[in-house]
Amino acid sequence: MRIVVVGGTGHIGSRLVTALQDCNQDVVVASPSLGVNTITREGLDEALNGAQVVVDVTNSPTFQDDVALEFFLASGRNLLAAEEAAGVQHHVALSVVGTDRLPESGYFRAKMAQENLIRASHLPYTILRSTPFFEFLTGIVESAADGNVLRLSPAPIQPIAADDVVAALREVAMGRPQNREVEIVGPDRFGLNQIAEQILTANEDGRMVVADPRALYFGAVLHDDTLVPGDHPRFAPTRFEDWLRRYVADALPVAF
After folding, report:
1. What is the pLDDT of residues 184-241, one digit of tens each?
2. Which domains does the chain have, with CATH numbers?
3. Which residues form the NAD(P)-binding domain (predicted)?
4. Non-local CB neighbours of 170 within 8 Å, separated by 6+ positions
5. N or C, fewer C-beta in 10 Å, the chain?
């Protein structure tokens, strides 16, 4: 089976390419650095030639509202049109748990626009909605910094290891289209402020975390149900405490 990974040189895409190749799949890596651009359509038709499955793990170059919306609309329209012309049988897209519950956020409005394009197309599809990756939590936490204080919502979140997302994407890509959204989440639920405290402790960072229900998350106020899954999500195996322990160990200097 020929599978095209669009965004195949990124954090998730590069890992997915390796995981699919390990399963003896015929994988095409598509990204602007390799001459395949979903905005300009450069190299797109050639990359999709003979493909049965396309996995879209691209992301906007910034979280700025207008830029994100323009990116996801232009990229989505061009990619879906090229897939229809190429006879692709399954479109897989990586999205975010809570996308439909964050209309105050310009970035998540853009992600919702991407999902709507997929649902309106004539292609069989599966949208895999994931919670935030462990690996990206530090960036989320740092965005809340105000001097020596970090104000974060106590709203619950179930973050997930990037490798678990990759495993789920591989399974979805090699399976049948489900024509719906599928949610995958980590096994543990924390308040976002609690996650921040654990990360700061692991980094021996003395700044103070303040639980603030009005703190913004990508421009939106969170509620108790915003970032948690609906009924019957898939649970990933990696626990946050185990991942954090490895993260700390990897950061330690090598002993000679």
Report:
1. 999 999 999 999 999 999 989 999 999 999 999 999 999 999 999 999 999 999 999 9
2. 2-251 (3.40.50.720)
3. 42-131
4. 16, 19, 20, 23
5. C
